[in-house]
Amino acid sequence: MKKLLYGFCLLVIVSCKKQLPVIQPTIITEKTPNDTDDPAIWVNPNDASKSIVFGTDKETNGGVYAFNLDGKIIKEKSITNIKRPNNVDLEYGFKLNDSTTTDIIAFTERERQQIRVFSVPDMKPLDNGGFKVFADAKDPEHNLPMGIALYKSPITKSIYAIVGRKSGPETGYLYQYKLNSDSLGVHANLVRKFGGFSGKKEIEAIAVDNENGIVYYSDEGHCIRKYYAEPSMGNEELSCFGSQYFTKDIEGIAIAKYQDKGFLIVSNQQAHTFNVFDLKTNAFIKELNLGTIETDGCDITTVALSSKFPNGLFVSMNDEKNFFFHDLELLKLN
Protein backbone atom coordinates (compact mmCIF):
# COMPACT_ATOMS: atom_id res chain seq x y z
CA MET A 1 0.00 0.00 0.00
CA LYS A 2 2.82 2.38 0.94
CA LYS A 3 4.59 1.60 -2.36
CA LEU A 4 1.41 2.29 -4.32
CA LEU A 5 0.86 5.56 -2.48
CA TYR A 6 4.51 6.57 -3.03
CA GLY A 7 4.19 5.76 -6.73
CA PHE A 8 1.01 7.81 -6.96
CA CYS A 9 2.74 10.78 -5.29
CA LEU A 10 5.60 10.57 -7.75
CA LEU A 11 3.10 10.45 -10.62
CA VAL A 12 1.38 13.57 -9.31
CA ILE A 13 4.72 15.39 -9.05
CA VAL A 14 5.71 14.40 -12.58
CA SER A 15 2.30 15.43 -13.91
CA CYS A 16 2.58 18.81 -12.22
CA LYS A 17 6.00 19.28 -13.81
CA LYS A 18 4.56 18.53 -17.24
CA GLN A 19 1.80 21.07 -16.71
CA LEU A 20 4.17 23.95 -16.00
CA PRO A 21 3.12 26.49 -18.65
CA VAL A 22 5.55 27.27 -21.45
CA ILE A 23 6.54 30.91 -21.77
CA GLN A 24 7.01 31.29 -25.51
CA PRO A 25 10.16 33.08 -26.72
CA THR A 26 10.03 36.49 -28.33
CA ILE A 27 12.71 35.48 -30.85
CA ILE A 28 14.39 32.19 -31.82
CA THR A 29 17.78 32.71 -33.43
CA GLU A 30 19.18 31.26 -36.60
CA LYS A 31 20.97 27.95 -36.11
CA THR A 32 24.71 27.54 -35.73
CA PRO A 33 26.54 24.71 -37.55
CA ASN A 34 27.24 22.41 -34.60
CA ASP A 35 26.16 22.71 -30.98
CA THR A 36 25.18 25.91 -29.16
CA ASP A 37 26.31 26.23 -25.56
CA ASP A 38 26.58 29.62 -23.84
CA PRO A 39 25.54 33.26 -24.58
CA ALA A 40 26.72 36.72 -23.51
CA ILE A 41 24.86 39.99 -24.14
CA TRP A 42 26.69 43.16 -25.16
CA VAL A 43 24.59 46.28 -24.64
CA ASN A 44 25.56 48.92 -27.20
CA PRO A 45 26.10 52.13 -25.17
CA ASN A 46 25.32 54.37 -28.13
CA ASP A 47 22.22 52.60 -29.45
CA ALA A 48 20.78 49.77 -27.36
CA SER A 49 18.73 48.52 -30.34
CA LYS A 50 22.06 47.60 -31.98
CA SER A 51 23.17 45.43 -29.08
CA ILE A 52 24.72 42.02 -29.86
CA VAL A 53 24.20 38.57 -28.38
CA PHE A 54 27.29 36.37 -28.64
CA GLY A 55 26.85 32.60 -28.47
CA THR A 56 29.35 29.75 -28.53
CA ASP A 57 29.11 26.90 -31.03
CA LYS A 58 30.89 23.99 -29.34
CA GLU A 59 32.88 21.76 -31.69
CA THR A 60 36.38 21.32 -33.12
CA ASN A 61 35.36 23.61 -35.98
CA GLY A 62 33.39 25.84 -33.64
CA GLY A 63 33.00 29.54 -33.18
CA VAL A 64 31.49 32.42 -31.27
CA TYR A 65 28.54 33.67 -33.30
CA ALA A 66 27.15 37.19 -33.09
CA PHE A 67 23.38 37.70 -33.32
CA ASN A 68 21.38 40.88 -33.72
CA LEU A 69 18.19 41.35 -31.70
CA ASP A 70 16.17 39.74 -34.50
CA GLY A 71 18.17 36.55 -33.98
CA LYS A 72 20.06 36.84 -37.26
CA ILE A 73 23.75 35.93 -37.40
CA ILE A 74 26.07 38.89 -37.96
CA LYS A 75 28.82 37.23 -39.98
CA GLU A 76 31.31 40.08 -39.77
CA LYS A 77 31.11 40.08 -35.95
CA SER A 78 31.36 36.29 -35.56
CA ILE A 79 34.61 34.49 -34.68
CA THR A 80 35.08 31.10 -36.39
CA ASN A 81 37.68 28.32 -36.62
CA ILE A 82 37.84 28.02 -32.82
CA LYS A 83 38.76 24.62 -31.35
CA ARG A 84 35.75 23.75 -29.18
CA PRO A 85 34.74 27.04 -27.58
CA ASN A 86 32.70 26.39 -24.47
CA ASN A 87 31.58 29.37 -22.39
CA VAL A 88 31.72 33.10 -23.10
CA ASP A 89 31.43 36.23 -20.98
CA LEU A 90 31.65 39.97 -21.48
CA GLU A 91 32.90 43.01 -19.58
CA TYR A 92 32.93 46.75 -20.17
CA GLY A 93 35.74 49.28 -20.01
CA PHE A 94 38.96 47.25 -20.17
CA LYS A 95 41.88 49.66 -20.03
CA LEU A 96 44.24 49.18 -22.99
CA ASN A 97 46.42 52.19 -22.17
CA ASP A 98 46.19 55.58 -20.46
CA SER A 99 43.76 56.96 -23.01
CA THR A 100 41.98 53.94 -24.51
CA THR A 101 39.41 51.52 -23.15
CA THR A 102 37.39 48.84 -24.89
CA ASP A 103 34.66 46.37 -24.05
CA ILE A 104 35.80 42.74 -24.28
CA ILE A 105 34.53 39.22 -24.62
CA ALA A 106 36.45 36.24 -23.31
CA PHE A 107 35.78 32.59 -24.05
CA THR A 108 37.38 29.22 -23.40
CA GLU A 109 38.97 27.23 -26.21
CA ARG A 110 39.04 23.77 -24.72
CA GLU A 111 41.06 21.83 -27.30
CA ARG A 112 43.87 24.39 -27.19
CA GLN A 113 43.80 24.60 -23.36
CA GLN A 114 43.44 28.37 -23.41
CA ILE A 115 41.17 31.36 -23.14
CA ARG A 116 40.68 33.98 -25.86
CA VAL A 117 40.04 37.71 -25.44
CA PHE A 118 38.60 39.97 -28.16
CA SER A 119 37.57 43.62 -28.23
CA VAL A 120 33.91 44.49 -28.77
CA PRO A 121 32.37 45.59 -31.10
CA ASP A 122 35.31 45.66 -33.53
CA MET A 123 36.16 42.01 -32.73
CA LYS A 124 39.94 42.33 -32.72
CA PRO A 125 42.00 39.68 -30.87
CA LEU A 126 43.83 41.11 -27.85
CA ASP A 127 45.53 37.92 -26.71
CA ASN A 128 48.23 37.22 -29.33
CA GLY A 129 46.54 33.92 -30.12
CA GLY A 130 45.39 32.92 -26.64
CA PHE A 131 46.32 32.65 -22.96
CA LYS A 132 47.15 29.18 -21.67
CA VAL A 133 45.31 28.17 -18.49
CA PHE A 134 45.77 25.43 -15.86
CA ALA A 135 49.37 25.13 -17.03
CA ASP A 136 50.43 23.30 -13.86
CA ALA A 137 47.79 20.55 -14.18
CA LYS A 138 49.09 16.98 -14.11
CA ASP A 139 45.91 15.16 -15.13
CA PRO A 140 44.95 15.65 -18.85
CA GLU A 141 41.33 16.51 -18.00
CA HIS A 142 42.45 19.09 -15.43
CA ASN A 143 43.71 21.48 -18.11
CA LEU A 144 40.62 21.50 -20.34
CA PRO A 145 38.90 24.87 -19.78
CA MET A 146 35.10 25.02 -19.95
CA GLY A 147 33.44 27.77 -17.91
CA ILE A 148 34.48 31.41 -17.76
CA ALA A 149 33.21 34.59 -16.12
CA LEU A 150 34.68 38.08 -16.15
CA TYR A 151 34.78 40.09 -12.94
CA LYS A 152 35.41 43.85 -12.75
CA SER A 153 36.43 44.83 -9.25
CA PRO A 154 34.42 47.76 -7.86
CA ILE A 155 37.44 48.49 -5.65
CA THR A 156 40.39 48.48 -8.08
CA LYS A 157 38.53 48.47 -11.46
CA SER A 158 40.78 45.55 -12.45
CA ILE A 159 39.23 42.91 -14.70
CA TYR A 160 39.69 39.21 -13.97
CA ALA A 161 38.84 35.99 -15.81
CA ILE A 162 37.58 33.22 -13.52
CA VAL A 163 37.96 29.90 -15.34
CA GLY A 164 36.55 26.40 -14.69
CA ARG A 165 37.51 23.10 -16.30
CA LYS A 166 36.37 19.62 -17.30
CA SER A 167 37.67 18.08 -14.09
CA GLY A 168 39.86 19.10 -11.19
CA PRO A 169 40.81 18.77 -7.53
CA GLU A 170 38.43 19.03 -4.59
CA THR A 171 39.90 22.43 -3.70
CA GLY A 172 41.34 25.05 -6.03
CA TYR A 173 39.17 23.95 -8.95
CA LEU A 174 38.81 27.49 -10.33
CA TYR A 175 41.74 29.63 -11.45
CA GLN A 176 41.47 33.43 -11.45
CA TYR A 177 43.56 35.46 -13.91
CA LYS A 178 44.06 39.22 -13.87
CA LEU A 179 43.92 40.79 -17.33
CA ASN A 180 46.56 43.50 -17.72
CA SER A 181 47.65 45.69 -20.60
CA ASP A 182 51.02 47.40 -21.11
CA SER A 183 53.25 48.50 -23.99
CA LEU A 184 53.85 44.84 -24.91
CA GLY A 185 50.16 43.96 -25.13
CA VAL A 186 47.54 42.23 -23.00
CA HIS A 187 48.51 39.58 -20.43
CA ALA A 188 46.65 37.12 -18.20
CA ASN A 189 48.38 36.59 -14.85
CA LEU A 190 47.28 33.89 -12.39
CA VAL A 191 46.35 35.47 -9.05
CA ARG A 192 44.67 32.63 -7.15
CA LYS A 193 43.24 29.11 -7.15
CA PHE A 194 40.00 28.62 -5.23
CA GLY A 195 36.65 26.85 -5.13
CA GLY A 196 35.39 23.49 -3.91
CA PHE A 197 34.37 20.56 -6.12
CA SER A 198 32.25 17.57 -5.18
CA GLY A 199 33.80 15.27 -7.81
CA LYS A 200 30.35 14.22 -9.02
CA LYS A 201 30.19 15.79 -12.48
CA GLU A 202 32.03 18.95 -13.63
CA ILE A 203 31.99 22.73 -13.24
CA GLU A 204 31.04 24.80 -16.28
CA ALA A 205 28.57 27.59 -15.50
CA ILE A 206 30.08 30.59 -13.69
CA ALA A 207 28.54 34.03 -13.11
CA VAL A 208 29.69 37.09 -11.16
CA ASP A 209 27.79 39.78 -9.30
CA ASN A 210 30.23 42.66 -9.90
CA GLU A 211 28.59 45.14 -7.56
CA ASN A 212 28.77 42.83 -4.54
CA GLY A 213 31.96 41.04 -5.57
CA ILE A 214 30.43 37.55 -5.50
CA VAL A 215 30.98 34.61 -7.84
CA TYR A 216 28.46 31.77 -8.28
CA TYR A 217 29.14 28.50 -10.06
CA SER A 218 27.37 25.22 -10.71
CA ASP A 219 28.92 22.12 -9.17
CA GLU A 220 26.66 20.23 -11.56
CA GLY A 221 25.50 17.24 -9.54
CA HIS A 222 25.85 18.88 -6.14
CA CYS A 223 24.89 22.54 -5.52
CA ILE A 224 25.31 26.18 -6.51
CA ARG A 225 28.51 27.38 -4.84
CA LYS A 226 29.10 30.95 -3.73
CA TYR A 227 32.46 32.67 -3.07
CA TYR A 228 34.01 36.11 -2.98
CA ALA A 229 35.19 37.21 -6.42
CA GLU A 230 37.63 39.74 -4.93
CA PRO A 231 40.94 37.90 -4.36
CA SER A 232 41.76 39.93 -1.22
CA MET A 233 38.56 38.68 0.47
CA GLY A 234 39.85 35.13 0.75
CA ASN A 235 38.81 31.67 -0.41
CA GLU A 236 36.20 30.67 2.17
CA GLU A 237 32.99 29.22 0.71
CA LEU A 238 30.00 31.43 1.51
CA SER A 239 27.25 28.99 0.57
CA CYS A 240 26.42 25.71 -1.17
CA PHE A 241 22.71 25.73 -1.94
CA GLY A 242 19.79 24.78 -4.18
CA SER A 243 20.46 21.12 -4.90
CA GLN A 244 16.98 19.95 -3.84
CA TYR A 245 15.35 21.99 -6.62
CA PHE A 246 17.18 20.31 -9.52
CA THR A 247 16.34 17.11 -11.35
CA LYS A 248 19.97 16.27 -12.17
CA ASP A 249 22.48 18.75 -13.62
CA ILE A 250 22.71 22.31 -12.32
CA GLU A 251 23.80 24.33 -15.35
CA GLY A 252 23.79 27.89 -16.75
CA ILE A 253 23.60 30.87 -14.39
CA ALA A 254 22.36 34.41 -15.07
CA ILE A 255 22.14 37.34 -12.64
CA ALA A 256 19.41 40.00 -12.86
CA LYS A 257 19.94 43.16 -10.81
CA TYR A 258 17.29 45.76 -10.06
CA GLN A 259 17.53 48.79 -7.80
CA ASP A 260 15.96 47.07 -4.81
CA LYS A 261 16.47 43.35 -5.47
CA GLY A 262 18.35 40.75 -7.46
CA PHE A 263 17.71 37.29 -8.89
CA LEU A 264 19.77 34.26 -9.80
CA ILE A 265 18.32 32.25 -12.71
CA VAL A 266 19.80 28.76 -13.06
CA SER A 267 19.15 26.09 -15.69
CA ASN A 268 17.55 22.89 -14.40
CA GLN A 269 18.91 21.06 -17.40
CA GLN A 270 17.19 17.68 -17.52
CA ALA A 271 13.86 19.19 -16.41
CA HIS A 272 14.12 21.71 -19.30
CA THR A 273 13.27 24.52 -16.89
CA PHE A 274 14.92 27.33 -14.90
CA ASN A 275 14.98 27.84 -11.15
CA VAL A 276 14.90 31.38 -9.79
CA PHE A 277 16.57 32.27 -6.48
CA ASP A 278 16.79 35.45 -4.42
CA LEU A 279 20.27 36.87 -4.98
CA LYS A 280 20.65 38.10 -1.41
CA THR A 281 19.23 35.19 0.60
CA ASN A 282 19.66 32.25 -1.85
CA ALA A 283 15.99 31.41 -1.23
CA PHE A 284 14.13 29.55 -3.97
CA ILE A 285 11.41 31.67 -5.59
CA LYS A 286 9.93 29.76 -8.52
CA GLU A 287 10.47 27.55 -11.55
CA LEU A 288 10.05 28.69 -15.16
CA ASN A 289 9.49 26.78 -18.39
CA LEU A 290 10.82 28.88 -21.26
CA GLY A 291 10.47 26.19 -23.91
CA THR A 292 14.17 25.35 -24.23
CA ILE A 293 15.57 21.82 -24.24
CA GLU A 294 18.65 20.79 -22.18
CA THR A 295 19.80 24.38 -21.59
CA ASP A 296 23.51 24.78 -20.90
CA GLY A 297 24.13 28.54 -20.72
CA CYS A 298 22.06 31.68 -20.26
CA ASP A 299 22.52 35.43 -19.82
CA ILE A 300 20.40 38.42 -18.90
CA THR A 301 20.24 42.20 -19.01
CA THR A 302 17.67 44.43 -17.37
CA VAL A 303 18.42 47.27 -19.83
CA ALA A 304 15.68 48.18 -22.31
CA LEU A 305 17.02 47.24 -25.75
CA SER A 306 14.34 47.71 -28.41
CA SER A 307 10.63 47.55 -29.10
CA LYS A 308 10.88 43.75 -28.87
CA PHE A 309 12.75 43.88 -25.57
CA PRO A 310 11.57 47.03 -23.76
CA ASN A 311 12.04 45.42 -20.34
CA GLY A 312 15.40 43.77 -20.89
CA LEU A 313 16.45 40.44 -22.39
CA PHE A 314 16.92 36.86 -21.20
CA VAL A 315 18.90 34.60 -23.57
CA SER A 316 19.07 30.84 -23.17
CA MET A 317 20.72 28.08 -25.15
CA ASN A 318 18.40 25.53 -26.78
CA ASP A 319 19.56 22.05 -27.75
CA GLU A 320 18.56 22.54 -31.39
CA LYS A 321 21.61 24.63 -32.40
CA ASN A 322 19.98 27.93 -31.48
CA PHE A 323 19.18 30.39 -28.69
CA PHE A 324 15.86 31.66 -27.33
CA PHE A 325 15.35 35.39 -26.63
CA HIS A 326 12.68 36.35 -24.08
CA ASP A 327 11.59 39.87 -23.24
CA LEU A 328 12.34 40.05 -19.54
CA GLU A 329 8.79 41.03 -18.61
CA LEU A 330 7.69 37.50 -19.63
CA LEU A 331 9.69 36.02 -16.74
CA LYS A 332 7.85 38.26 -14.24
CA LEU A 333 10.84 38.58 -11.93
CA ASN A 334 10.23 42.09 -10.67
TrEMBL record:
Residues 13-334 form the BPP domain. PROSITE patterns: BP_PHYTASE, PROKAR_LIPOPROTEIN. It comes from the Bacteria. This is Phytase. It comes from Olleya sediminilitoris.
